[in-house]
Amino acid sequence: MDLLNTLVEKGLRRELPTREEALAVLATSDDDLLEVVAAAGKVRRQWFGRRVKLNYLVNLKSGLCPEDCSYCSQRLGSKAEILKYTWLKPDEASEAAAAGVAGGAKRVCLVASGRGPTDRDVDRVSKTIEAIKEQNEDVEVCACLGLLSQGQAERLRDAGADAYNHNLNTSEGTYGDITTTHTYADRVDTVHQAQAAGLSACSGLIAGMGESDTDLVDVVFSLRELDPDSVPVNFLIPFEGTPLAKEWNLTPQRCLRILAMVRFVCPDVEVRLAGGREVHLRSMQPLALNLVNSIFLGDYLTSEGQAGQADLDMIADAGFEVEGAETTTLPKHRQGGGCGSVCGGESSDAPAEAPAEVRAEAGAARTDLVSVRRRGAGTDLAPNA
Ligand code: SF4
After folding, report:
1. What domains lie within the chain, and their CATH numbers?
2. Is the Cβ atom of 72 under 6 angstroms away from ligand 1?
3. What is the pTM of this model?
4. Does the CB atom of residue 65 touch ligand 1 within 6 A?
5. Collapsing DSSP states into helix, strand and coil, what is residue 164?
6. What Enzyme Commission number does this protein have (predicted)?
7. Do residues 209 and 173 touch, judged by C-beta distance below 8 A?
């Protein structure tokens, strides 16, 4: 297929595809799916070999959020029966993080619900980061605490944080349909603050919220422009008790096409398969390892993932290897931030108009696959790692 040959050549050169090409990936048929995966897999292997980075989530503070993000089980007014607890103590968080590191994770992601941290919260998280680094000097720590105020990114960096996550989630055009209590611009500003403080930026998206193909391409191109080092791709987990509970819009094939598109647009960036992997890809998860170079190990913030050992077995069975602490995730030209000189802008042949919309295929509701997290951080039960 000419499209795929072009995209592979561009990906190997770190050149941005056109919007039309990105849309065409999403519009490919199931008959072409393996060719799409193979093509994006060539780009993935060029920049990341067969390595898979494992990341481990620690939910420092769960539920009770005053914001209204429609996709989130922790939102204002959520009826989802998730764990609700306030800040974990530094030793509790450190214990949870240690389980992830013992399971093979090289990055620990410290996440707290809420609009953004107070300065006291930043103190708390700083103590937690110090406690984790004391136990595991080499582990990368990423903080995800919401919208940052002036000076907070610097304080987290000084406490030892390596990275900051704040997702764009969806396109600028649809952001107001998903959340009303903060804006897309607020989110972009926080990513910029993290970058300005010298933190490695992590920013991604959620697919499956009823968005169009154009919206998906828009958010991925916006992410490319923002130039984070890692891009988590979440697939909506339609939690009962949230406004998006009925949005079962994804099939495994659609998820693979989305991941392939993200890989072509962000060829040399850490693309991480995040929440919703088990729910939407199901038995097709191993194929996704050809597209992403990073996944979460074990459970998510408020839902349970497959057993940590099953993640490790899947990686080995598919012929991939867990990335060790001694290996730097990003290719050499990206180390130290930024994407290097080649990928500065969109190709000159980018069309002004996107082709007609292609409707997302609907997946069957699989509420049986959504399990609220009942173990690990905030409980007396051992974490899944
Ligand atoms: S995504 Fe974050 S800010 Fe939005 S409702 Fe959930 S916890 Fe709150």
Report:
1. 7-330+356-369 (3.20.20.70)
2. yes
3. 0.92
4. yes
5. strand
6. 2.8.1.6
7. no
